[in-house]
Each structure stands twice: as structure tokens, then as C-alpha cells.
Amino acid sequence: MILDPLIGGIAMGCIYSLIALGYNMLIRAMNLLHFAQGEVMMVGALAGVTLVSVLHIPYLAAIPLIMALCAALSLGLDTFAYRPVRRRNVPVINLIIATLGVSILLSNAAILIWGAEPIRYPRIYGSDALLLGPVRIPPQFLAPLVVGGLLMVGLQIFFARSLTGVAMRAAAQDPEAARLMGIDIDRMIRYTFAISGAMGGAAGALLGPIIFASFNMGEVIGIKAFVAATLGGLGSMPGAMVGGILFGVIETFGALFISSGYKDALGYAVMIAILLVAPSGLFGRRARA
User: Fold this and answer.
1) What is the pLDDT of residues 119-154, one digit of tens each?
2) What pLDDT digit, counting tens, does each position of 171-226 carry?
3) What's the maximum distance between 2 C-alpha atoms anywhere in the chain?
4) What 3 state SS string does the chain have?
5) Nearest partner of 189 among 100, 78, 102, judged by Cα
């Protein structure tokens, strides 16, 4: 049945979209490609194992705790790793290289804390699927669909309706004009790091029960999320959401109709094809406002 893999693809796409939103927020605000975003997600997934398995915190209650932890982690990375580099007024490529170093640091720290072996989450979901008419939703995909969807909608409302969200958009679009209007650009950058970290943490919490949590999961998932961000258009918030879901669906149907061994390659091939037609992605920079 075509609806079953479609639901799975959309669910995985919601997870990719959350990470892609983190990428695009930092690209939008600072033109910074944060290569450690996947590792922030990885920390969220592994921290979720500790909270649920060791501390016995209910899974849904653990998700906001994981988001807060990863928001603090991302903010700490900016404070102690990126901001000192920024203050030297170095080219942005130097800052991007710093994010590569941070990604390696986080992976090695994860090995020290959680070990090198993949870790299975405890049994969280039941075995019965949710039936909505002809649609059958497997239990492991309910949280990504519901929580991921709510987070994406909430983030859009935050940027559109709240004073802080509007200030962050203004600071990202024209920092000098925003500074003249009294907006604290450094504070907006800190907010951006915190929110991008929270989105990464949520993605890790949602992905962990579906696959094994491990120190190296951020590398592969982070690349996929970056591909999703590129598909939608770097710097575009709607593009991150659409690109993530599109990549998740392409990946799922590629595994279904071609081979699971080629599903990653198929997603990248489709990305190249789309970029040949629309070099800025499906939404591109026009969607920044």
C-alpha cells in the first residue's frame, strides 16, 4: 500500500526538517554552515537514552528536557568556541572550520560518556498501529509526525508573531539597520544558536527510538539534513521544512522500489537534479523574509 511508506517518509522527513531548520537559521543569521549540527542531534539522542533508561523519565516528558539540554549545549558552543573566533573578525570560512573541529570534539566526548557501541532505547511504543481511515500510522512514527509538526508550526508562529522572532528576522536580514533600530545583534545570534540547538535535540529525541543511538549517527543524519536544507533553499525556513519532508519521502520510496542500499544515493541524485533546474533550491533566498 502506497500510503504506508508515504507516512514513514514524511515522519523521517519531519526529523530531517528539524535539523535543517537549525542549519538554515544559522545560515540566515550569520552565513554560517554549522557542521556540528548533526552532532548536537546525536547528543540529544544519547541524552534521551540516559533520561529514559537510567533516570526513568517518561519519554514525552524527556523531550523538552533534551531540547533544553541541546539548546544550552549549542549556546555554550557559541560562547566558548565560535564567539572568540568571530571577535577576531576572521573570514567566515575560519568559523566554518571551527564547527568541523567542534563536531569531532562532540563525537569523541560522546564516546567517553556513552561508549562506542550503539545503544537501544527501551521499549517506548506499542505494537498496534493507529488507523485513520485508510491511513495506517506505525506507532514509532507518531511522535515524529505530531511533535515534529507542532515544533515546526510553533517555530513559524514564533518568527511571525512574537517581538523576539521579528527582531531575529530583522537582525538576520539586515544587521546594520537592525542595530540602528536598537536590536542587540549579539543577543539575537545567541537566541539563534539556542533555538537551533533545541531543534537538533528534538530531532535526536525523535530519531533515537527509531534507530540505535550512537556517537557517529550525527555524521550521516547531519549530511542528510543538510541535503534537505539545500533542496529547500539555504537560508529559507519554509524550504527547510519542505526539503526535509521531500528528502524523507524520496529516501523511503527509493528504498522501496529500487534498493535500500541505494536510497542515500537516490536522495543526493534528486538533489543534484533539482539544483540543476533551481540552483537556489525550491524556495531559495527569496523566502528569507
Assistant:
1) 999 988 877 888 887 788 889 999 999 999 999 999
2) 999 999 999 999 999 999 999 999 999 999 999 999 999 999 999 999 999 999 99
3) 59
4) CCHHHHHHHHHHHHHHHHHHHHHHHHHHHHCCCCCCHHHHHHHHHHHHHHHHHHCCCCHHHHHHHHHHHHHHHHHHHHHHHHHHHHCCCCCHHHHHHHHHHHHHHHHHHHHHHHCCCCECCCCCCCCCCEEECCEEECHHHHHHHHHHHHHHHHHHHHHHHCHHHHHHHHHHHCHHHHHHCCCCHHHHHHHHHHHHHHHHHHHHHHHCCCCCECCCHHHHHHHHHHHHHHHHCCCCHHHHHHHHHHHHHHHHHHHHHCCHHHHHHHHHHHHHHHHHHCCCCCCHHHHHC
5) 78
Report pLDDT for 1: 63
Name the average pLDDT for the chain. 92
What is the rounded CA–CA span in Å between residue 244 and residue 19? Answer: 9
Q: Which amino acid is it at 65?
A: L
Q: What is the dihedral of CA 26, 16, 243, 227, to 10 degrees?
A: 70
- Rounded Cα distance between 284 and 249, Å, is 21
Q: State how far the Cα of 236 lies from the Cα of 65, in Å rounded to an integer.
A: 27
Distance CA 53, CA 173 (A): 43
Pair 254, 266: CB distance under 8 Å: yes
Cell of 47: 541524552
Amino acid identity at 254: G
For 109-119, what is each residue's pLDDT tens digit?
Answer: 999 999 999 99
Q: Can you say whether the dihedral through the CA atoms of 77, 83, 84, 86 is positive or negative?
A: positive
Grid cell of 153 as nine digits: 508550526
